[in-house]
């Protein structure tokens, strides 16, 4: 994933899932597609292990872009459904990325 030169923002969403899928995978894929259409969206990385621990980092141009995503009606409805059904717990941190670098083996 190619990100712009900093500064930009990272929203770090760490969660613990409940047992079973109950439509989670399909809705998560849709949320990723919907987020990608939001103004200021820069990209996303997501992983989940066998125990149900997941970490998703989404990248945004600015805080207004993050607010736009957070207040998106479909995202809000999905977040509420997640609290009721899919998550045992989650936490969110919003960070400003000041410096970034990468390595890629040729």
Give an overview of the whole structure.
By secondary structure, this protein is α+β, with helices and mostly antiparallel strands. The protein has a single domain, classed as Alpha-Beta Plaits, CATH 3.30.70.100. 33% of the residues lie in helices and 35% in strands. The chain has a four-stranded antiparallel sheet. Helix 1 packs antiparallel against helix 3. It is globular.
Quick description:
The protein has 106 residues and is α+β, with helices and mostly antiparallel strands. The protein has three helices and four strands; from the N terminus they run E-H-E-E-H-H-E. It has a single domain (8-97), classed as Alpha-Beta Plaits.
Q: Which bin fits the share of residues in helices? A: 25-40%
Taking pLDDT < 50 over at least 5 consecutive residues as the criterion, the unreliable ranges are none
Overall average pLDDT: 95
CATH topology: Alpha-Beta Plaits
Q: How many domain regions?
A: 1
- Inertia-based shape: globular
Overall SS class = alpha+beta
Radius of gyration: 14 Å
Number of helices, where a helix is a run of at least 4 consecutive DSSP H or I residues: 3
| Strand segment count | 4
What string gives the helices and strands in order?
A: EHEEHHE
Strand content: 25-35%
End-to-end gap: 16 Å
The profile of the biggest β sheet is: 4 strands, antiparallel
